Amino acid sequence: MSETDTARPSARAAALAMDPEEFRRLGYRLVDRIAGHLRTLPQRPVTRGETPDQIRTLIDAQRPLPERGEPAETVLEDAAGKLIEHSLFNGHPRFWGYITSSPAPIGMLGDLLAAAVNPNVGAWTLAPVATEIEAQTVRWIGELIGFPGASPGACGGLLVSGGNMANLVCFLAARAAQAGWAIRESGLAGGSRRMLVYASEATHTWIQKAADLFGHGTEAIRWIPTNAGEQIDLDALGRQVGVDREAGHLPFLVVGTAGSVSTGAVDPLAEMAAYCRAENLWFHVDGAYGAMAAGVAGAPGELAGLSEADSVAVDPHKWLYAPLEAGCALVRDPRHLRDAFSYHPPYYHFEQEAINYFDLGPQNSRGFRALKVWLALRQAGREGYREMIATDIRLARRLAASIRGERRLEALTQALSINTFRFVPDDLRARTGEAAVEQYLNRMNQQIQARIEREGEAFLSNAVIAGRYALRACIVNFRTGERDVDALPELVIRIGSEVDREMRAQLP
Ligand SMILES: *Cc1c(COP(=O)(O)O)cnc(C)c1O
């Protein structure tokens, strides 16, 4: 073989190969299609409300794995058409379901760039720039929410897939720090006392998954009652910890919620932090939804208390508007992640200490989730984010006011950017609370929600407030404007009146 032969790159015709010219052509075409989608989205339905069977037919679900490949152009066209014509769009200005944000366009481009470079952000050597960008992203998120970490350094943390994973990572950090024996080696059986967790009844279901997955069992959760505003009862918390210690158990973790899923309630975080410090308990804040609103105009002052926590879970794919998936686990003292996850000595690269994220969390190979978050933080800056989040909250309050102004709508709760409310026909207004009436209202509002979804003009989810089935609008959407929220009461009243009429016609 001559020298010139090996100097030339080989031209292997692999099944997945795509020459740069074809990549450019298909890529531009896809970007054009996405731009068209974004332009026309406000005029199209949030969702078509199709059934599982319709969607299975659409993609020919039973078709076996194709033996032979197809041109990239064909499959990309096919996928784009199906997805853009038949999906539910949380990027629609009138999508207000669950806590799912509208995706930032720069995040869409960021994911493309991340996939093109494809750094493995498990190891510094494999991802030098990406690792440092992730570390900066974590620091910036800490700064944004006012969680500076142990002095003098910044907080520790890493990106994960979402709020659940971020909470699970913090749970393990808390456990390793609090067990008092070598729990990573000898497990729960290595201790003589039962480790217990304290969380309010408004806590998200990640807590059951954590207790179950990590071998404690859900009975290790002490459910603390809440007040009418869904905030944890501090006296009950203190009493329960006392009783459990008396019984020889090991209370180790207290969970506060910064923005509950159903109503957006914020626990008294500063008081909880002070209590935990005095009692030597790990204080974790689940801020998946609400933490990003800390310091934002119109947000509850209680959020400031999260700066006192030992760990915080936040969700960039919620109020940082990152495309799915992006969660972030933050710990006050960076050592705690290493203590919970590492099996290696600290790593040095050319004599400088460097971060290997596989030592700070459960994943080994890791994608570059941080890029889309980092790009958006740079594009909007702190000011831009404060403005977007404050506007979401302001729009939610505007919606609350117009709901209160409608005779046939009953406002139930308003906090952060969540409103819960329901439709109540005129003649039942004075009879709410009667068992039969409540049953009827519950069934009716359930149908109203389903019909709104089917018609696709807006999208709401639901909550149950003191036994009442409520419609729930959560604005984590930088595309929503005043006209969008102003249209909602009328829509609910129109559909509510229809459903009421139909249900009464069917009564015996
Ligand atoms: C959304 C949410 C979670 C779960 O986060 P995912 O990103 O869906 O995994 C947990 N806790 C709270 C308070 C949330 O709002």
Explain what this protein looks like in three dimensions:
It is a single chain. The protein is an alpha/beta fold and 508 residues long. The protein has helices at 3-7, 20-40, 52-58, 72-86, 105-117, 128-145, 163-178, 183-186, 206-213, 234-246, 269-279, 316-319, 335-341, 370-404, 435-455, 482-506; strands spanning 156-160, 195-200, 221-224, 250-257, 282-286, 311-314, 327-331, 347-349, 352-354, 409-415, 418-423, 461-465, 468-474. A hairpin with a 2-residue loop joins strand 8 and strand 9 (352-354). Strands 1-7-6-5-4-2-3 form a seven-stranded mixed beta sheet, sandwiched between helices. Strands 10-11-13-12 form a four-stranded antiparallel beta sheet. A two-stranded antiparallel ribbon has the order 8-9. Helix 2 (20-40) packs parallel to helix 4, helix 7 crosses helix 13 (335-341) and helix 15 (435-455) crosses helix 16. The mean pLDDT is 96. Pyridoxal-5'-phosphate (PLP) binds at residues 99, 162-164, 204, 206, 257, 259, 261, 286, 288-289, 315, 327.
The total count of strands amounts to: 13
* Uncertain segments: none
Helix percent reads: 40-55%
Radius of gyration: 26 Å
Largest sheet data: 7 strands, mixed
Q: Estimate the strand proportion.
A: 5-15%
Strand order of the largest sheet: 1-7-6-5-4-2-3
Task: Name the overall outline.
Answer: globular
In round numbers, the mean pLDDT is 96
Q: Name the hetero compounds present.
A: pyridoxal-5'-phosphate
Q: How far apart are the termini?
A: 91 Å
| Class from helix and strand fractions | alpha/beta
Order of helices and strands: HHHHHHEHHEHEHEHEEHEHEEHEEHEEH
H/I helix tally: 16
